[in-house]
Amino acid sequence: MTVQILYFAWLRERIGIGREDVETNAATVADLIAQLRAREDRYDTAFSDMSAVRCAVDQVLVDLDASLAGAREVAFFPPMTGG
Amino acid sequence: MTVQILYFAWLRERIGIGREDVETNAATVADLIAQLRAREDRYDTAFSDMSAVRCAVDQVLVDLDASLAGAREVAFFPPMTGG
Amino acid sequence: MVDLRIIVSQDDFDLGVEAERLETGPDTGAVVTFTGRVRDVAGGLRHMEIEHYPGMTERALTDIAQDAADRWSLSAVTVIHRHGRLIPGARIMMVGTAARHRDAAFESASFLMDYLKSRAPFWKKEVREDGAEWVASKDSDEAALDRWV
Amino acid sequence: MVDLRIIVSQDDFDLGVEAERLETGPDTGAVVTFTGRVRDVAGGLRHMEIEHYPGMTERALTDIAQDAADRWSLSAVTVIHRHGRLIPGARIMMVGTAARHRDAAFESASFLMDYLKSRAPFWKKEVREDGAEWVASKDSDEAALDRWV
Predict the structure, then answer these.
(1) At what angle do helices D102-119 and C102-119 cross, to 10 degrees?
(2) What's this model's pTM, rounded to 2 decimal places?
(3) CA torsion angle for D37, D41, D45, D51 (degrees, to 10)?
(4) How many domains does chain B fold into?
(5) Has residue B83 been placed in a domain?
(6) Per-residue pLDDT tens for C100-149?
């Protein structure tokens, strides 16, 4: 399947792009991250500290072991700092 | 000594006046209340439920056993309902 | 130095102007305002009559505001309380606090409200179509003070 | 019916107008507003850059506001959050709540702030004279959520 992946804040800066379409068979968010890290160093570096990574699937916050079944949009970002 | 006594809210309404000067030798607020209650029925009625009476001496909230030494202004009123 | 603004008046106030005044200095990150209005709970309320103790009121409000400012290191505190005749929907009072962080601003505003409710010399009377009645004080308002001791 | 007002924008807002909007209906006795501003804590802050996740932001804010409205029976909730470049002293965001009583208005505003801090998709970057840095999330902000569970 094809999912659109979005990156925000320093994840966006480290990876160097804000969005991309990725072809994947990943079953879970964690699987997708493993696939991305295997691609290139900049991905590997960006995802090196997973305690600092949050994820939303189709604009809903999820844990990293969440399923990607039916997912169209996956976003990665650091802990939020609104308010 | 002469003290100015002020009444507020339903204490003012029951006694029928908002302020008066009273000549007194009362040592405490409670003594002053006893003196007032002895004067006339309207005072006796107004002060009949002491749990509903609050007092300020010279504009500072005090307990009913507070001293009147040096007092110039004594105010009686029901529990406050501001805000 | 804390900026204290205490107003006791029959007049209405402009919340936007008051809130803007609280946004002072480079170190103010959080401003909280509370506004209280006359509610017509049961229907049939003509107006609220608010009596106060001139002289003591200003003094009590200033003491409470200064106390809050010291306790939470506030940069500004505003307390405005109206008196006289207020119709349903009218603003009765406001408190406003300015602090570095949100917790201090929220807590101090809540503290001010709890003290205003049962330590500032104001008394409310409801004038209804079927008569007038002094608003009774609530045990819960007295109990609310315990958390600040 | 609760009146939800959610705005995500680069533009500033008028707190007076927003507060007035919250004063709706005969049963609203208490309105609380919180306003957050850019602080220049250490000196030398040029501006704050606020990034957000368009689409998800509006959705998250609406969910949080609806949740607060249900939990405290609010008559109105306003959440405004700015993004883009904000200079020191500029307003970043506000929440406003309207309820019957003061406790509901205070608690729900505090709840909204705690959720906004760590559950709404905003990220702050401080651009200083000596470089730029993403603001780190605080453990205390995450811990603040525990009291609402």
Answers:
(1) 180
(2) 0.95
(3) -50
(4) 1
(5) no
(6) 999 999 999 999 999 999 999 999 999 999 999 999 999 899 899 999 98
The residue among D12, D22, D34 with the most chain C CBs within 10 A of its CB, best to mutate, is D34
Class of domain D3-146: alpha beta
Residue A82 lies in a domain: no
Return the structure tokens found at D147. Answer: 């009291």
Residue of D nearest to A60 (CA): D56
pLDDT tens per residue across span B1-50: 999 999 999 999 999 999 999 999 999 999 999 999 999 999 999 999 99
Assign residue B61 the CATH number of its domain: 3.10.20.30
For chain D, the structural domain boundaries read 3-146
Residues of D in Cβ contact (< 8 Å) with C33: 19, 31-33
Q: Which residues of A touch D56 (CB under 8 A)?
A: 56, 59, 75
Chain C residue numbers with beta carbons less than 8 Å from the beta carbon of D36 are: 29-30, 102
| CB nearest A56 (choices: D51, D56, D116) | D56
Whether there are 3 or more C-beta pairs closer than 8 Å between A and B is: no
